[in-house]
Amino acid sequence: MNSAPVPADSPERVNLLGFDRIALEAFCVRQGEKPFRASQLLQWIHQRGVDDFQAMTNLSRELRARWADTCEIRPPAIALTQQSLDGTCKWLLQVDDTNRIETVFIPEEGRGTLCVSSQVGCTLACSFCSTAQQGFNRNLSVAEIIGQVWVARRELGPDRITNIVLMGMGEPLLNFDNVVSAVQLMLDDFAYGLSKRRVTLSTSGVVPALDRLGEVTDIALAVSLHAPDDALRNQLVPINRKYPIRELLAACKRYVGSDNRRKVTFEYVMLDGINDTPAHARALIRLLSHVPAKVNLIPFNPFPGSTYRCSSPETIRRFSDSLHQAGLITTTRKTRGDDIDAACGQLVGRVNDRTHRRIRLATATS
Ligand code: SAH
Question: What is the pTM of this model?
Fold first, then answer.
């Protein structure tokens, strides 16, 4: 094969970090190697966190040299690390000259959850989310999505990450192929080996993509519902105008299928005076009565420029109690990392906004 050396930082170098098993097997075969080398590469790259081909001692010297000349294992660079008083850790990662994203690790008793971003910014304009305020620039590549796991594992040490949630910046179902490849790596026994119950994708409800997701995987699903009726949800989560609640819930039912052990987690941000009254709770109970559902109440996390306030702890408790009494499994998310702006909806990174959302918003409100 042609293996002319390319310079170390050349874009022509193939970044193997972003190759899932299928892509790596195809790569190995193209290189005249047996497909089983893909498993070896997965183990070196993801289980051992190796980024130097010379360290891959079960590959021949010749193969190591050839791949070192033509390939690379290049994760995003850490621009800033912040540690919260509660142990939450946030990394600002540089994904190219102008764009940065954020990744958060949340340690809890007996588990550690990594919250991963899928896009630089977001197109969806949910009115209570700070990522939305920044606009959107581009989808993350597979290497940039799985690279967040790779970097976090390197920084934290092995065995700390027990769960992954695709709940960082962006709408994962609008970056479908790259997110699915990254998920395959999260699940692959030779990479991160997580069980599908420990990998959760959170979506605002892109219905056709949700159906496609169900065709390729059955990882855990969380849906950002936030309102029990279309009029209110249209305001909070504008994609509802395209895919209204009825269609979204039907897609959720199709996703979990007939396995009645599987449930969809419905996320519901608690906004003072907006969606938190007893009437909203009753409407939510009615709405979810025929859906295999769990509800996760999220206290609203404020950010600069946000106009909403969080419901009072008493209101959240009453809302939770009434759902609970109606038989709905209900949890309230503990706010973590808010002292370093690492809580839900506070992730901003740095986005080179192609949609000029910030300018539009500033003009609209001035
Ligand atoms: N785009 C995906 C995933 C990213 S957001 C989605 O919409 O699900 C992850 C969760 O945080 C979503 O439920 C989102 O609605 C919620 N969220 C966004 N902004 C928030 C804020 N300011 N306070 C609390 N939760 C917020």
Answer: 0.94
Domains 14-72 and 77-365 share a fold: no
Q: Kindly list the domain boundaries of the chain, sorted by start residue.
A: 14-72, 77-365
* Ligand 1 pocket residue status of 347, Cβ below 6 Å: no
Mean pLDDT by 10 residues, the chain (366 residues): 47 92 97 96 98 97 97 97 94 95 96 97 94 92 98 96 97 98 98 98 98 97 98 98 98 92 96 98 97 97 92 98 98 90 78 76 58
Single out the catalytic residue among 25, 33, 72, 102: 102
| Centroid of ligand 1 to alpha carbon of 336 (angstroms) | 14
Domain 77-365 CATH superfamily: Aldolase class I (3.20.20.70)
Alpha-carbon distance values, 53 to 67, 125, 149, 351 (Å): 7, 42, 20, 33
State if residue 88 touches ligand 1 by the CB under 6 angstroms criterion: no
CATH 1.10.8.60 assigned to domain 14-72? The reply is: no
* Ligand 1 atom with minimal separation from the 168 CA: 4
Q: Are strands 119-121 and 111-115 parallel, antiparallel or unpaired?
A: unpaired
Judge if the beta carbon of residue 300 lies within 6 A of ligand 1. yes
Neighbouring-strand partners of residue 270? 299
**For tokens 């695709």, what's the residue?**
166
